[in-house]
Design goal:
42% of the residues lie in helices and 22% in strands. By secondary structure, the protein is α/β, with parallel strands linked by helices.
Amino acid sequence: METPLTNGAVIGVDLGGTKLSAGLFDSRDELVAREHTLVGGLSQEQLVDALAQAVGKLIEQTEEKVVAAGFGVPTTFDQRTGIAVQAANLPIHNLPLRDVLTQRTGLPIFLDNDANVAALAEQRKGAGAAAGVTDLIMVTLGTGYGGGIVIDGRVVAGHIGAGAELGHMSIDHAGLPCVSPNCPGVGCIETYAGGTALARDAQLLVEREPDGALARAVADGFEARGETVLRLAKAGDASCLALFQEMGERLGTAFYSLVNIFNPQMIAVGGGMSPALDLLLPIATDIVRRRALAPGNDYVQIVKAAYGPDAGMVGAALMARDGAHALQVA
């Protein structure tokens, strides 16, 4: 008797700018095997090879039937066709990824933006699950600013799946050009919040205050980057604290627009800048409480995300499970 699609194992794959993380989840949705691969500098063809090979290696590690694979990829998608349209930090352009991976793996393939699937993981398994929320926005604050939207337990990404590009919400119509080479916008929050923005602001601080604590640290061999700025801020340096104050206010400005538009129960914030959230989130939350419309301004919870680097992998597996179920009942 053939294994029902909902009862077998699924695979979740999270593709980042420098590494690939893949996990095999059994029929009880327990993680039973992992694969990690460095992908920095690979061509589009090599990236596809790496994705297919990771799935193949995981299939070999289980006796259960693998019924589907999900992929979180940092690109915009056209879900009508399964085409990965463009990526900010990977050489992916108009790639028919769903068809290619279906052919290479022999599995039903489900695809979405990496931040969207991370949001799904946070809502179902992370901070959202702990609080019992169904409507959650996840913001990923790392090198840049990304995010995903879950409404009524489902990822929301627009009519053809190309939406929820939260990093490209403009907070200044006459602002700086977006740091993403594929975005024609100006004033995008991605340009003002995240590791790249903090490094830029830190360098400007060094030039502005050549005798300041950050400039002295740079002279001692430290980089003018997030880790150095955070260390000095936590030690009480007023200028470094001011950088986080400014970034927290920028985040709050973006957050209160999200609150006004979506009225989420929760905004969960994670990513590589998580060590700085103790400084940033109180500032951002204060902006939301004061500037977002009532009653959403007081209703929304703004918290640290519960998941770390596994969020995309877990979310991709959840998407694969959902997709397998949909195929089963169709």
